[in-house]
């Protein structure tokens, strides 16, 4: 008889955003007359930038010719895209990342999940609390998280680093030695952005102890505050201890088109092994690469027009986040985030539970949010709203929430 991976049996309930989608669908079915406004999952609403679709159309036409047809592509991504990323996202910002340290993929979520393949089963994993659930669930699936404790909402083998109002939503270095450390800045879900001074101790820690930082930079394009680093590699020494995940999903409307990249520096070695070589081996074996047409679309973001169009997208979402942040603050809620991030993190009123407030807003305001408790125990008492909605709908959502409050 086959043995299943019994770690899956330990996972509580369903994946956070699937659970929300299920509840919202049930509510919508029972109340077909209600027009819901969705500010829950961070899914974008603007169409793909014109530069992207033009490049994709051209690539489709190329694929229809004998000379321009592309079969299997390089698993690591085409050099036209890797070169552009290395140059414009890193070298132009004074960071020495080379094209062969960049791996094109179909999503930061996939890569954040798949990266655990590189690490042994007994590593101690540290996560922020609240946290993007993918880091926790994928370590649970691969047996590194121990057992789920319903009462505390925590996994027995994970080290949780609370990010709460008292520490400005910035994790403190863990009190015990850890090996794999997930950091996400600007943060999902709290919207907090880390300065160089706040990131440096993590780089120093990882280099000193041999830990690896798994740095999720999916929201870097939303940084507005001068001096806030856009990449972990802006911190000296990060190239020997950090892997960085980036995505085109939120910056250029690729949530349905799928393109992202992961940076694994060649200087990053552990136990004599190159993590760049290991990730390359993993991708060549398990991944067929991102479609040529999609990579051509992503490469268009590195032309002057494409860059400007992506900036314009981000500006719309930044403005939405501002509308949410200011509107909810005026309504008396305590809010943070939404400045260097598309996410606004709001405290529930009168000590209400996250799911309770989520339900209240769903039923009375017909606005979908994300309950903070879904991101971990320290998210209890908060909800998250995204700036990725349509502008007019976002304004209306804030108005409806204010009326309910
Ligand atoms: C979120 O809402 O946190 C994100 O959209 C989820 C994701 O990017 O996978």
Automatic annotation (TrEMBL):
Binding site residues for substrate: 15, 42, 109, 132, 188, 288, 384
CDD domains documented for this protein: AAT_like (cd00609)
NCBIfam families in the record: DAPAT_plant
Gene source species: Candidatus Flavonifractor merdigallinarum
Post-translational modification N6-(pyridoxal phosphate)lysine, affected residues: 250
Enzyme class (EC, first level): transferase
Entry protein name: LL-diaminopimelate aminotransferase
Pathway info: Amino-acid biosynthesis; L-lysine biosynthesis via DAP pathway; LL-2,6-diaminopimelate from (S)-tetrahydrodipicolinate (aminotransferase route): step 1/1
